[in-house]
Design a protein that fits this description.
Blueprint: H1 15-18, H2 43-48, H3 60-77, H4 88-101, E1 106-112, H5 124-128, E2 132-138, H6 145-157, E3 162-165, H7 173-183, H8 185-193, E4 201-207, H9 213-221, E5 239-243, E6 247-251, H10 263-271, H11 282-295, H12 300-308, H13 317-328, H14 333-345
The chain binds guanosine-5'-triphosphate and magnesium ion (MG).
Guanosine-5'-triphosphate (GTP) binds next to helix 9.
Length: 359
Amino acid sequence: MGAFLLPPPLVPLPSSIRFKTPSLHAPPCSVPNTFVGGASLDWSQKEQINFSTIPSEISASEESFWRDLDADMAYWTRPLRPVQWYPGHIAKTEKELKNQLKLMDVVVEVRDARIPLATSHPQMDLWLGNRRRVLVLNREDMISTDDRNAWATYFTRQGIRVVFANGKLGMGTMKLGRLAKSLAAGVNVKRRAKGLLPRPVRAGIVGYPNVGKSSLINRLLKRRMCTAAPRPGVTRELKWVHFGKDLELLDSPGILPMRISDQAAAIKLAICDDIGERSYDVADVGAILVQMLSRLPTVGSEGLYKRYKIDEDGHCGKIYIQKLALQVFNGDVSQSSFRVLSDFRKGKFGWIALERPPR
Ligand SMILES: Nc1nc2c(ncn2[C@@H]2O[C@H](COP(=O)(O)OP(=O)(O)OP(=O)(O)O)[C@@H](O)[C@H]2O)c(=O)[nH]1
Ligand SMILES: [Mg+2]
C-alpha cells in the first residue's frame, strides 16, 4: 500500500451483512447506482459465477451478467458530463493517416485487451476497406486467461486474425512481424511478375491512444525507435521505421472519434487511461469504477474491503470514494478516486478485462 495509511484492520463482518442489496432508501448518489440491466443477480447468485472456472465458451449466465453490466454502465454514465477528447494532433493525424493508409500493404490495428470493443474506432472499417489487416489485443498481461480465451474465440469465429501481445515485454511481437510479412507477400509476387524489384512490405500500426502501439514497434525492432510512455497522446507525428530489409512500419498517434457517442465506452477509456485525463472528471470515473468492481465476481465488495477496509454498502461508488477520501486523503475525492483508478491500472484487484464479447 506504500504511503497509504489505513485505519487499524476492522474485524470482517459476515458476508451476509456486508453484501447488502441496493436499498430504495440508500443515501443520494449523484452517480446513479441502481441496476437497469435486466434481472440483476443477487450476491449469492454472483458468487456462483466463478469466471475463473468458466471455459472459453461463454455461458448464458455469464453473457447475461455482462449484458446487464453494460446496460448499467450506460445508465450510470447518462447524467455525467460527456467525455470527449479530440485535440489538434488527433484531427491532423486522422487526415494524414487516411492518405497514408493508401500506401499500406497491411494494417495492424492495436486495441486494449481489457476493452477491445471500446478501443475499436467506428470508422476504421470504412477507412480500411479491403486492406489486409491484423488485429492485436495488446496488454494481454492485464487480462485473465478466461478473458483471453473468450476474446480469441469471438474474433476467430468472425474470421478475424487476432494476435495477443505484450508491448512491454515483447510477447507476440515476432508472431505479429511474421504475420504482417506473410499477409503482404503477394505484393512482391506481383512486382516480380511485372519485372520490378521487390520492395519492403509496408505495415501501418494504428489504434486508440496509449494502447501500446509505439512499445510494440520498439519490441519488434529490439530498439527504442519510437517514444513510448504511460499516458495517452505521447506520439504526435506519423513516423516510418525500418525492420530489417523487408518490413517498414508506420507508428502513428492514437486516434479517437471526434465525438464518442457511446459514453459507457468513453468511461472505460478513462478507467484504462486510454483518453486524455483532462477530458473527464476523475471523481465521477472513480465512482463508476467502484460500482463496476463491486459487481465483478472476481472483486466484489469483498475485494474492495480487502484493499481499503471500507464497506461497500448501498452500491454507491460516489459515497465509497468520499469515505476513502475522508479516511486517507483529508476529504479530497479527486485523490481517493485517482487511488482507486491507479490501483485498478496496476492490477491490484487482479488482472481483469472490463468487457466480454457478446455471443
Ligand atoms: N503492462 C503492459 N504495459 C504496456 C503494454 N504495452 C505497452 N505498455 C505500456 O503502456 C504505456 C503506453 O505505451 P505506448 O507504446 O506509448 O502507447 P501508444 O499506443 O504508442 O500511445 P500514444 O502514442 O499515446 O497513442 C507504456 O508505458 C508502455 O510501457 C503491455 O502489453 N502491457
Ligand atoms: Mg505512441
